[in-house]
Amino acid sequence: MGHKARIAGWLALGALAGALTTVGLQATARATFAPLPLQELQQFAAVYGIIKSDYVEPVDDKKLITDAISGMVASLDPHSQYFDAKSFKEFREGTSGRFVGVGIEITMEDGLVKVVSPIEGSPAFKAGLKAGDLITKIDDTAVKGLTINEAVKRMRGEPNTKVDLTVFRRDENRTFRVTITRQEIKTVSVRAKVVEPGYAWVRVSQFQERTLEDFARKLEEIVRAEPKLKGLVLDLRNDPGGLLDAAVGLAAAFLPDGAVVVTTNGQLEESKATYRATPRDYLRRAGTDPIARLTVNTQGVLKRLPVVVLVNEGSASASEIVAGALQDHKRATIMGSQTFGKGSVQTVRPLGPDTAIKLTTARYYTPSGRSIQAKGIVPDIWVDETPEGNLFAALRTREADLDKHLAGPDEKALTDAEREAARQREREREAARQRLEEEQRKNPGTRLLPEFGSDKDFQLQQALNHLKGLPVVASTTATERPAKADN
Q1: Is 317 a catalytic residue?
Q2: Which family would the database say this protein is a member of (predicted)?
Q3: Domain housing 125
């Protein structure tokens, strides 16, 4: 269904495969293999031979094998994936925070690419694309029928090449064509500002290779501008995750040296690990430690500053690691709504110079030993998105809603009544989507939710109230979602 693809992703990722993932990178593929099941391989060879000899048209050998590998990996869980040369390149670009493209944050709506926001200074920004624009064609290819991954791939390309986008702008009721020259885009995963005297807001939108450096630099600027900080709001709403070491490093900025941030456990001995707030567990390479530099340059203010962490259903994986660690160590108050619930770690194993598989290799656990797989982090204080309630919660898909997701620790098989209740929730989600679209049509060009970090951001205002010791308008309707699985 179209609304299930309503997940926003940076074009930096090249595909949503990069999102909702806590990734470890491994330089070489493992050299040990399990014994091969000869009977099943003979059957595979027989099917391969029949296709080659009997199919209505000739089929390329490489395509057959690649599709077989891709299907085998994809059948495991929603986060395991085979990378061909192009998608592997895009994945690496996504985690580095650099990519070549037009520079827009997008989602899918009714089968079309919807512009959530152009990246400031990007080719799309300079070309005049606006939030809410619908892309109906990429060059001469209609977007209707493409997946979001396929649409993203068509908009990406080599530097200084051109792409033609056909755009429908609802509030002006017109369609126009724009030619954009692709350029390298540098995404900044951290934004920060002093929202009022004594209080700062820091937003991490994704955990990338540059996140720790960006975070340290932004916080140093904040402390210089406001040396007498009284409290900080760490905003992880709609942060889909990213690199595990970046999450460990960010948590280390707030925790005592050596404190446990997260543990992992899987079949392999190397997947049984404990990650602590120490440089050896978060530095990707030898060199400057941005978190140690931040601690020195700010006199360790983050180690003692009162902190509120804002989360929602879009906070996943690496952002859940940070929230869970700060919650377990009682280092921060978690506010918002129950998070996505992705409690697994993926390892990228190269198969050659330009292909790889991203494979789920471990589950992760918060410092107290909690698995949040298919459950998520439950906030200490439930706070709605707006004074009127949660406008988008019914639309958001969580880990427990994904087909073939790993079962959580408390999940049970659904009864017939529970299956019907799940179908009813799906119907309610569809009805909520239609109501929101109708509301958008009545108010074209307006945001149904205020921008994160703005003075109209209701959850941010409640976080600031909590830091000041003022009353918080907590949700009276939001409740923890029970863990269920359709096994």
Answers
A1: yes
A2: Belongs to the peptidase S41A family.
A3: 2-18+91-186
